[in-house]
Design a protein that fits this description.
homotetramer, 358 residues, five-stranded antiparallel sheet, 23% strand
């Protein structure tokens, strides 16, 4: 309880449940005077919506954002900005079973213990991926602020089901990734990924993947070491996204296998600005930005909801039992996670930039 | 500025500098009545000290902990616990150069910008690895509390310079890891690792590695989703350790390549308790513990201080220049990081257990 | 910006504006399993509504509470509880004038500076007394929790327009105060107060007063000295109520004129429990409760909205000008503030009791 | 536990005990580059020291401040600033008695309950007035920052033992108050106050009083409504000072007896700046500053340590008993509280100004 807010200066509070009335968010600390409207938020929310039947859940989610507070005449007022989307009637009956037969890979069991059986379990309640819509909404506010500071944040699918995209030049990444449903900047890889997802789906299985996010335009010196390092705060919000199991910056885990002379980025001068020749540090040194793009990768486990038979425990009888999850589910949530990673990154960057009043 | 505290209920505040008077820490929120003394803290501090000349810096650091507050008659009083170690005279002259010629891979450059040239740069100031001693001190307090709740936390070196340890049975890990200077639970790997470090050292280079940490005995339901998930808070504190570039739980980045049916951990009943047959989730589902051990891996980049010539920028002339870092430095800080990872993990677990008054 | 939340363990976030879509609140950290419904909240919201035309504004506010999240089957789930009341169409035209001619005693001028003219000024925006409805809603959640711990909080009007109520025995206070529109536990004083308010109203003027609040049943030892003392946190939330200019505990300002021997409360034993013979400390010693009722008094200034002519500055011309505030306004908001003081007190007590898991 | 820090941006953490090794403080969030040294802090610490034997405790406290971190070459570095004063050997024997016979008006009893008998009770431990030295130290850092922004904070004794000072012109207040041991800006009143204190002392009794604090030069718009209003945050820190029972701004409790037309401050133009003709609001409207001085009054109860016989409970026998407190104690702590009120006010103002990067 009471962990539903994040940020010190740009404070995001999540509320709502998967099958409750709504999913919403309060953003406190946004500067006044920024242009913002529902269309801007809707655009990102739409990126989070399920893909075509081929790879995704068929639940029809309209997900129309509505502002409840914090705007006047299309501008932020400096007051808390409340946004939500109303849930449509959802069928929660299948979830009754999971209260006594917790789904492997889901939070059903620990949530039951934690909330002593009182938690809203319908559709996964607070633990549903649907809750990431709140992060996306808040992320748009953060991005609007960051844009006013010439900071750009963008994410894309790097890997799905073991297929890794080849990255084009930085300028092409956004353009290409926007054109395929996998949100990946490699058209060929996109097709292979779709095949991998489809194959998993047909087996009643699922696949995971990796999202990469870049943030450019951040001035050097952003971050609050020791304990509010910029990478630490980014990692925290990214691990708050359901299904994330790993986060790395720059050369990441690979750095553990490099030598210092290979991994160090030499400083150099480019058009009168300090830059580095490589970016193995992923934009972060000592918890501070140094003017190069932040590059972070986020590993998503395969969706735990699979239709294949699995073993679990019948909590009433305290014995092992089989479980079959009915209905259709996302065989891969990675492309839908792209705007969530982007939003999460933007929220932390906005928080830290505002702390410095940059 | 003002990011030097962490925790909501067990609050750790770091102070001190590498070449200032001391390195210290205040721990606020420790329950009263726990047995604690300087010997207990010293034991862990000693684990953080430099290794023999073969792989480490020869600076003689005594690192004797002293308690300034919070104890009476060998027990915690419920008041803030302040601990520190006094710095001995250190030679800071070589650091003058780095103010105008920032070391690649270090925080020299962004710190200069952030603090407008006023930061204590001597010995790296607040950005020195020496500051991790404060975390180790606070971690002992956390571990004493956790032990009273039967929670055990232990870390070890998993990989150095590309050499990965084979893990023995869980019970042997501690025992074996305690016997070699690499702190790894694989005696043969330890020797190979030492060879790799020595080789790098002789080339004036350095190597990185991976530390793994396990925490067992944690009851199910610990963590505060959505934004204070237990994995999110662990990742945050771990990325606050200098040189960390990646964090993963359970199957981690590998999960991105598995299918749901492979990665899901089936629930089962063991001696009347709910457990899982595998632990790919690394002890965390939906941001909550579920009774299985937390397993986290932390990737350390190779020490950026190398004696090989490197390129950097002369900030006064704004032109590229060569830099040679004199003196001897750790060619691998991974084994010294083991107690730091352990302490960091313990701090977050203590914070979350205390939130629930478990 | 970003000061719209309060509490560490029971966290209340306010949103909405006087003439925006709604006034609402998110309560994060409420334990799961408590019985709660809209009727319970409505009861307290109704106590905050304007009194009959004699002393109050005629604006017809329905103020129906609606839950958006956090409940299932009439019980709290442990998730954030979101409540709001929708605003009805309000006429904001008269407020245009105050942007250039700030009302004396109101926040018009500093808010204009702070939000650079972007703040929602309609109906006073975030600075309207109407926002206290959010506190009342959150306070009901706090009171439901406190009742489960046998803690009772109740407030009443002590003084209005210089007329001070005589307090009956503690058991009668609630009963009598509930019977008159001044919410004061002295029927005669109530009539005098109404006369005073009516007289002020007829002159186009207003009066202030004092609300007293008592909280009983709190176990000894609640509070987090040094900086989260129970009285400090109560004072903080009480000063957040618009129009509050003073807060005192127990003998309060009078204590400054007493001798130590007069003001000290002797400890004594009553039915096997430690109590004190007097309660000059108002339930707080060293920032901790000691088992006696908390007694706090809150001074409200007279409503600044008066219809008498006043002087202010025309910000465009930067010259002094006359201002006449049209429409009818509360000539005394003290009785309406009673449930707000009660709610505020309950919020802090719930927060502190939950910190101790009592 | 864990309430020993205050502030969001300028964060003050208190540590130490009355008869432990030291009393200290960590200040996190101070901007880099400010001039600061031990003399500057010592000056204010000296103002907090006991007065001559006539009115105060004879304990010889040297109270020499020492910096442990955060400074280099006489300037702040942006790192946490740690300051402390070492305690000299103190005789704690008399405090053993209070563990079973709690002193009326002190925290002995609730602290015993709260910390289950483990709290450091020697000299009052964390509840001793001696701990206010930590606030004074932190306050100097705040004042140095505020001075760089042309904000001035000063406090003085307004009332002692029922004798109220007459205030001279604002410019004379500091000068006169500095010349008498009561720290009051009225020389005659000072003499009367000393007589009152001396008389109380001779009877083995004590007196209380009121400290007033003014802060000028603050720009309009400072404060974070709704819950971090500037007056709310000031009241919080002021109630954290031991013995404070009341806080009021501007006309304060008196406002409850005024009419709106009397209490409202008219805006006017003075030398091109917006000011108000009166300052009944005490510098705060709607939780925001508006450019006029903040005026706050703080009521201190009479020192609870008196040598007169008192009744208390023998906790072992659970029966009423007599208590005689041996040794000499302050018969009036009000003048010593003056720098504490000043420091507390400065800490909150620095925190809020820094939030706005003003």
């Amino acid at each position: 309880m009471s962990g539903n807010s994040i940020g010190k200066r740009f404070v995001v509070t999540s509320f709502g449940e998967s099958h409750g009335k709504c999913v919403g968010v309060v953003v406190d600390g946004c500067p006044s005077g920024l242009q913002l409207d529902e269309n801007r938020v809707q655009r990102d929310l739409d990126r989070r919506r399920p893909r075509s039947g081929a790879i995704s859940t068929p639940r029809k989610e309209e997900d129309k954002v509505e502002f409840l507070s914090g705007l006047m005449n299309g501008r932020t007022t400096g007051a808390p900005i409340t946004m939500l989307m109303w849930n449509r009637d959802a069928d929660s009956t299948s979830y009754d079973e999971f209260r006594s037969k917790p789904r492997p890979g889901h939070a059903d069991y620990p949530a039951l213990i934690r909330y002593e059986g009182n938690n809203d379990y319908r559709g996964g309640g607070r633990f549903s991926g649907r809750l990431t819509a709140a992060i996306v909404m808040a992320g748009v506010v953060a991005k609007v602020y960051l844009e006013s500071k010439l900071v750009e944040v963008f994410a894309y699918t790097l890997e799905v089901g073991g297929i890794r995209a080849k990255l084009p030049e930085i300028d092409k990444i956004r353009e290409i990734a926007a054109k395929n449903m996998m949100c990946t900047p490699d058209t060929e890889a996109a097709e292979e990924m779709i095949r991998a997802v489809t194959a998993a789906r047909e087996e009643g299985d699922s696949v995971g993947g990796i999202v990469e996010c870049q943030a450019s335009g951040i001035p050097p010196g952003v971050g609050d070491p020791i304990f509010d390092s910029i990478d630490a705060d980014l990692a925290k919000i990214l691990f708050d996204i359901p299904a994330v199991k790993g986060v790395e910056f720059g050369s990441g885990f690979e750095a553990a296998r490099l030598k210092g002379s290979e991994n160090n980025d030499s400083f150099t001068v480019t058009e009168g600005r300090i830059t580095t020749s490589t970016n193995n540090a992923g934009g972060v040194l000592g918890g501070l930005t140094y003017g190069m793009p932040i590059v972070v990768r986020v590993a998503f486990k395969p969706t735990p909801s699979i239709s294949k038979k699995q073993l679990t425990v019948d909590l009433k009888k305290m014995e092992t039992t089989e479980l079959e999850i009915k209905g259709r589910h996302d065989a891969c949530i990675v492309p839908r996670a792209v705007p969530v990673v982007e939003a999460s990154t933007a929220i932390v960057l906005a928080d830290h930039m505002l702390r410095l009043a940059l």
